[in-house]
Amino acid sequence: MKASLIDIGGTSIKYAWGDGEKLYDFGEIPTPKQDIQALMNSLYSILDMLHTAEDKQCIGISATGLVDPQKGMVRNRTNTMPGYDNYPIRDLIAAKYGLPVCMHNDSNCAALGEAKYGAGRNLKDFICLTFGTGVGAGIFLNGDIYEGSRFFAGEVGHMVTHAGGRDCRCGNKGCYERYASVTALIDSVEDKISERLNGREIFSRLQNGDKKIYFLIDEWIDEIVIGIYTLVRIFDFRDIVLGGGIMQEQYLIDRIQDKLSYCLSSYSIVDCFKDTKVHKAQLGNKAGLYGAMAYCVFKLTHL
Ligand SMILES: [Zn+2]
Question: What ipTM was reported for this prediction?
């Protein structure tokens, strides 16, 4: 099996080709945002390049936003990229290259990638949460991605954890990602110390013993944990995989584990959640490509 793989993100497009086991010729370019044709032209250039290297049998696309995998298009209403929503990306690519194309959202691809090639190997059930500008999730149940009745399961960033709270880009108030995303941490730090730091800078201040930062991070971890706690109570996940660049901080993984274990053992009628384990995602910024490859393997074996 050889597949060309593309991960369309809000900031960059990543690409590679895969043989079902490994990725080759990885590259990354900024996402063109002027209009949909500029984006499509970039995708065609990448695919032309990947297709000269080796014969391919499938194309796998991981895409940011709410993806309808049956229609092969993004169904957002947020208009973060002009013309991106409801554009027949998959069908145009399939027609141009004459190959089967599978297209899924980036959170599901990340979860499937971790399931087949990363932290979720050998796990039957887990949830993979990705923390960045928002919070995304892929739900892996009984050895497969749970997509939901309309393919939009896993939108945990928009579960409400603070009724009537902060305004969210979805139009609601008090959504989880307004408190638990990396952006929420950056905002709260800026609010308290009047300086806008990125995630890496915030954690370097923590290492230097900054007490204010310590407490702000701890409050942010409480927000993360309450969401995970709720998901564990609904789905009874034993394993939680945490992704996004910031989750490479071992301090964060350990602290989330401690607080989650405390909540689950303190606020539970039965003593059955104490072995809930938090794992660091293993595939980094290639998780979407690995997931797209896993979808291609599945598609080719079920044609
Ligand atoms: Zn929301």
Answer: 0.99
Residue type for 243, please? G
Query: Which 3 state secondary structure label does DSSP give 53?
Result: helix
- Domain shared by 144 and 168, yes or no: yes
In a domain, 209, yes or no: yes
Q: How far is the CA of 69 from the centre of ligand 1 (A)?
A: 22
Q: Are residues 177 and 92 in the same domain?
A: no
Segment 248-260 shows an average pLDDT of 97
User: Cα of 183 to ligand 1 centre, how many Å?
Assistant: 14
Instruction: Tell me the residue type at 191.
Output: D
C-alpha 166 – ligand 1 centre gap (Å): 9
- Measured between alpha carbons, how far is 60 from 101 in angstroms, rounded to an integer? 6
Cα(174) to centroid of ligand 1, in Å? 7
Q: How far is the CA of 79 from the centre of ligand 1 (A)?
A: 15
Domain count, the chain: 2
Q: How far is the CA of 21 from the centre of ligand 1 (A)?
A: 36
Q: pLDDT (tens digit, 9 = 90+) per residue, 160-212?
A: 999 999 999 999 999 999 999 999 999 999 999 999 999 999 999 999 999 99
- For the chain, percent of residues with pLDDT exceeding 70: 98
Average pLDDT, whole number, for the chain?
94
90 and 230, same domain (yes or no): no
CA–CA distance, 225 with 217 (Å, rounded to integer): 12
Tokens of 144: 């497969």
Rounded distance from Cα 153 to ligand 1 centre (Å):
14
On whether both 101 and 126 belong to a single domain, the answer is: no
Look up the domain containing 225 and give its range. 122-281
Tens digit of each residue's pLDDT (9 = 90 or more) over 119-169: 999 999 999 999 999 999 999 999 999 999 998 999 999 999 999 999 999
Whether 95 and 205 map to the same domain: the answer is no
- Residue 71: CATH number of its domain: 3.30.420.40
Name the residue type at position 14: K
CA of 135 to the centre of ligand 1 (A): 10
- Same domain as 236, residue 255: yes
For 74-91, letters b (16+ CB in 10 Å) and e give bebeeeebeebbebebbe
295/276 same-domain check = no
